[in-house]
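Format notes (please read before filing issues)

Several people have asked whether sequences and structure tokens are stored in separate files. They are not. Every record keeps both together, in the order shown below: the sequence lines, then the token lines. Line labels are part of the format and must not be stripped during preprocessing.
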Amino acid sequence: MDRHIALALLLVLCAGIAGAETLGTVSSPGNVLSVSVTVNDEGRPGYSISRGGREIVSESRLGFWLTDAPKLERNFRGDGVQTRSVDETWEQPWGERRYVRDRYNELRVRLVEKNPPQRALTVVFRAFDDGVGFRYEFPDQPQLRNMNIGEELTEFAIADAGTAWWIPGGEWNRYEYLYRRTALGEVAQAHTPLTIRTDAGLHIAIHEAALVDYSGMWLRRVDGTRLKAVLSPASQGAKVKRTAPFSTPWRVLLIAENAGALYMASDLILNLNEPNKLGDVSWFKPSKYIGIWWGMHLGTWSWASGPQHGATTAHTRSYIDFAAKNGFRGVLVEGWNVGWDGDWFANGETFSFTQPYPDFDLEGLAEYAKSKGVHLVGHHETSANIAHYEQQLAAGLDLYQRLGIDSVKTGYVADAGGVKALGDDGQIHFEWHDGQVMSRHHLKVVTEAAKRHIAVVAHEPIKDTGLRRTYPNWVSREGARGMEYNAWGNPPNPPEHEANLVFTRMLGGPFDFTPGVLSLKGKGGQPFQSTLAKQLANYIILYAPLQMAADLPENYRRYPAPFQFIKDVPTDWEQTLVPNGEVGDYATIVRKDRNSGDWYLGSVTDENARTLQVKLDFLDPGRVYRAQIYRDGANADWRAHPFAIAIERREVRRGDTLQLKLAPGGGQAIRFQLVPG
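Then the structure lines:
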């Protein structure tokens, strides 16, 4: 390019920046963060974010590409600004903590095109001290009522270079990838949450909240450290079809000084969701469950009927007996229903959600479980054939309601882009797991289940964006690499996996990781890259209100001492804190039981041995606690001595400091039991 032309272009660009008009600004309640909304001399709207006076998100574009109308991108002017402040506290029916503070300052900027047809929209920003959420709101207007969105033009221009932890978006295995650690400038196309540590040490995570009737957002790096929203595809035409008035999901930036504060900032995602729409949900009981599941992944049992069938009456009765003896509320049974024979992965239309296999007495087992104080956990695998599933949804849920089965694990096993959905034309179309069609489908399942007082745990789901606040029966979901990858190998989950999950996937919400495999072996004896103590620590590190003990009963009988922690640990919390952590390296989390005065600690590390110090200033003052410590043994190492574990007890008080010695691939779990008196 001629240098005179290049200079002229640079001058034009600078003039555009210099000519930007600030339409409104808002600071967070503690003046930590500040947001500015602007239009430049072309009428392009944008925003920027500063922290402590330093820009952390540079000027980033806002807007939309429509498939049947000109883009909503330029020739805008400001048409009014509104602000308000909110500071309130609400109570979760269950969760990582009982009370959540919702404190923010809001800026609403109305934008109208300068020229006909003068379409209008409002951009709403909420500034919290630990992050920012923003969304677009479209009013009812004759010139823009039916919207066909081809793409969002939303940008996130991170001002500084840094390191990013991310999984690829738009690939065949949905969200089930190992996290990549790269320079921010090497990110390709990623799912959210995407976590960044800038070179200055600031931690930022980009995600979304309240994903309702809309396509999920991926992120694509367009140049340097500038990321752009990419909506999950649709099988035909526009990625999102909506009728005004409506609001988009919130685009979220969690912003914190360190990794622990980033995890704590994830309450912001809940706060950006609407309050509980279901009313009293006390019928949902946070609890632990076991299940006929791990044996299938080991290859010793099968989902299909035949001599290896796992879901038999005899097997299930033995699991119910084990659950009753050891205090587990639930027993999951996969493979109970007709449809698993043959290539169920491809033929989801063969599933029945009301007809059990002949060797599974569903009604008798539900009654037997009830007599033992145990509940069956339902299972609806769909092979992502939602057209078929929705035809039977009401009947399947009615059956569970009648039998007292008050939770169901749903599954959508299919490659990305393989969801079979019934289109408006009456034909089957192939959709993405995180497209608008699946956003609608999941809420249909959740709301229908809620009518029958049934909780939902979704596997192969759309990502978690905090909708558990609005629909508290949507209690957990998968959406990452879980325990089954340790059974399959090729490769198993690496030692850093849990320390990655805490500060990435777990920012979205509860994860049905299915922890607690004490055998530390997968299919064909494939060894885990974990110590025994780390399996226990995962019950604290990886939160879920319905938490599985995934191993076979015989392995729990083989390791009764560590199994005691799995029996003791609760799944509903009064408070949660993060004493220390670094993304992908280590994490320590403490949680207080909602139903007692006890605290629990979990700490995990990557492939490196570590010694961490934790000051017990979270304990109640003036009280004595009996610490039941499950730690890596003196020679523990996931490679050579994964079963080495030391279990000890000591009395501790507030202000004491514990040293947590973590072996390579190891962890530590502690119960702080309040001593009466």
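For reference, the curators noted about this record: The radius of gyration is 26 Å. The chain has a mean pLDDT of 96.
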